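[job 4471] stage=fold_predict status=RUNNING
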Amino acid sequence: MTNSKGPTDRGLIGKGPKGHAGGRYDVVVVGGGAAGLSAALVLGRARRRTLVVDAGEPRNAPSSHMQGYLSRDGMAPAGFLAVGREEIARYGVELVRGRVTDVARGEDFAVSLEDGREVRARRLVVATGLRDELPGVPGVAERFGRDVLHCPFCHGWEVRDEPFGVLASGAASVHQALMVSQWSKDVTFFLHTVAEEELTDQDRRRLSAAGVKLVPGEVTELVIENDRLTGVRLADGSFHARSVLYVAPRPVPRTALLKRLGAQMDETPFGTYPVVDATGLTSVPGVWAAGNAIGFSEQVIHAASGGYRAATAIVGDLLMSELDAVAG
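[job 4471] inference complete, writing structure tokens
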């Protein structure tokens, strides 16, 4: 049986953030990436009044393609988000380009937007993600997502068997150098600002077993020819030919709103993230988090799944609260 009214029968598309009386929503989703759009899709299909506030700062914006997402392998991140926005619009979900500047708890959540408007929500999904703070070597930021990479699962296949470099920036860099040897047997580990004595005996044994070459000395620049990485230059003037350089960015979670709401946070080696349950529910009643807002290793497919889980939990939570209010 089909519904002759179709998914947009509530007539909410294009009304903006005041499309509902008093700017009130069942759910406001902060963040319009994979996690936020996935949550919004489920909420819209469940006939919940939903607003997405999107600052337009996806983590994977520098990449020309995303990989490992079944049925979407190789799709451009911008194209993926465009399709997602079209899909949520079919179900009356509203999307506002902008930034949430403040959130206050009360009977509902008061959500302040950067343009001065305020909307209210019964529940919140925080899907604000994170930003990658890159090493300060000249050329790294400009080439990031092209031939300067950080995730072999995202890009390893596309650059397989090329000569890899790995720029050390901390203890996690040893693990990165070992992992990328799955995709190339020509790997050079540039110790950069890491002293050789910081490597453990186990590190050395594993790097040797993987065939990873160690090069001490600080990397001072990337060498680019014809818009392609050709190698790196060290402080001593030596040049090392490489066509791919892996780096380990420092993840900086965008969790200011969660902290402002008093969410319990957990310090990790990769940043401070909210403590959540299996659905993404934080320690603050009515507030869920999903995507890179809960962890640095959430890939696009994980983020979409997390948004879905959060939304289904919210639908049930809202329904039970409404039934309890009627039942007294």
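[job 4471] summary: Residues 1-19 have pLDDT under 50 and may be disordered.
[job 4471] exit 0
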